[in-house]
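Field notebook, page 260. I keep forgetting to write these up properly, so this time I am using the form the group agreed on. The chain and the ligand, calcium ion, are recorded exactly as supplied. Prediction of the bound pose follows.
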Amino acid sequence: MNEAQLKKLDQTVLGWLDTVHDTVLKRVTQRMRVDTKAGHRDLVTNVDRETEQFYVDAIRRFDPKAKILGEEGFGDAVNDMAGRVWFVDPIDGTMNFVKQQAEFATMLALYEDGQPVMAWIMDVVNHDIVHGGPAYGVYHNDTPLATPKDTGLADGLIILSGARLLYEQFGFPEVAKAALGFRVYGSAGISYLHVLTGKAVGYASNMKPWDYAAGTLLGEALGFKVGKIDDQPMNMLISGTVLVATQQAYSDIMAIERDL
Ligand code: IPD
Ligand code: CA
Ligand code: CA
Ligand code: CA
């Protein structure tokens, strides 16, 4: 895509995010339907579903040939990365959304033939957006973001998944102890925003493709290192424990992994 096409794409999706911001904030004041999926802690609401349906309709109008991989199943069954593939996480941090009405995000990412094109992450309550891509640059709202300072684990905050930490998997407790401090936010999108804007040196969590597609694209575009904590190659269509971090924090964490 050329610069003008990328600009049009960005403006279009930013328009969708405005709509989602207004609609979702209105919806939290109304009665919500909360259902469970895989277990009693795996929540989904009518707002998750309606928001995904909104994105799917908007993408189909704007980019009819694309495939859509959405968490709530309103998109397509996507088996490969050929062509244009949109990843959609309508409400990321549904537990926070239901219990706190805050600290939740919405995320979209577009890849073409497996190559990153553009992604968007919005802290919905604060209308705070990181968006962009490798050929476009990455912006925090209207401000261009620069590659972050290469801070190591001992000098920064690491954001971790609560479950991996609690159940002492993949050396998460050791990583937390080696960091200056650790945080658990309960939303991949909110966590990525902290990393991308330089407030934390890294984020690691067990995630599904729609949880990590946007953060991976934006992180790599900004010069962060992204990979699987078990050192397996990234495959955008499978779940895994994914780490995004400054180059230094990434090698600090992988050194801990190797010593386990
Ligand atoms: C979840 C959140 C959470 C992460 C889970 C995700 P959801 O997304 O990002 O922080 O630990 O792995 O599934 O289900 O609320 O969109
Ligand atoms: Ca979910
Ligand atoms: Ca999610
Ligand atoms: Ca979600």
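OBSERVATIONS:
- The helical segments are 3-27, 46-62, 94-100, 162-166, 172-178, 188-196, 209-221, 247-259.
- The chain has a mean pLDDT of 97.
FOLLOW-UP: compare against the apo run.
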